[in-house]
Amino acid sequence: MHVRSFRLLELINNFLFYLTAVHQQNNHLIKQYIEKQGGYILHLDATCEGDSPKLVSSIDPLSGFVLYSAKLKSENKDDLGGFLEEIKKRLGVPLVVVSDMAEAIKSAVKDVFGDIAHYICPDYNGFRGAGLKPCSWPAPSSCG
Question: Which pTM does this prediction carry?
Answer without folding.
Answer: 0.74
